[in-house]
Amino acid sequence: MDKFQNFSLDGVFLFGKFSYENARKTAVKCEFFTTDSDEDELVDSYLKSCYNCLFRRWSKESFECLKLK
Q: Integer distance in angstroms from the first to the last C-alpha of the chain?
């Protein structure tokens, strides 16, 4: 499985803001994953999740991964 298959070509997560299982599976395979140091920014109870990554930026519908740019 390609670790970035869950992202568009411009780095946007394809499953939106509430696909916790996909965000977790993707983060486990990502060598760039770094937990956000601001605890207020952690949104998933499972720590290793793209939703908790320092390199994600939220958008209206989803988030983009800054490491994929």
A: 20
